[in-house]
């Protein structure tokens, strides 16, 4: 699974994330989170991590 694709526009990234299974999404998020631990983390990785979190929340909304 490829983490960084600088050519990914936000909508392309969202589409890619929607096509992933839950397990793939978790693995992708873990990889992005690992890469974001570096203080010099690229904005690309930060955006990917945020989009991954957003997709997870969309799939698994909290019960109210």
Summary keywords:
64 residues, globular, 3 helices, mainly alpha, 66% helix
Question: Tell me about the biggest sheet?
Answer: none
User: What proportion strand?
Assistant: under 5%
Count of individual helical segments: 3
Shape: globular
Instruction: Output mean pLDDT.
Output: 89
Order of SSEs, N→C? HHH
- C-alpha Rg (nearest Å): 12 Å
Tell me the structural class.
mainly alpha
Low-confidence stretches: none
Q: Total number of β-strand segments?
A: 0
Cα distance spanning the termini: 34 Å
Structure, described:
By secondary structure, the protein is mainly alpha-helical. Helices cover 66% and strands 0% of the residues. The chain has helices spanning 10-19, 22-36, 43-59. The longest helix has 17 residues, at 43-59. The chain is globular. The mean pLDDT is 89.
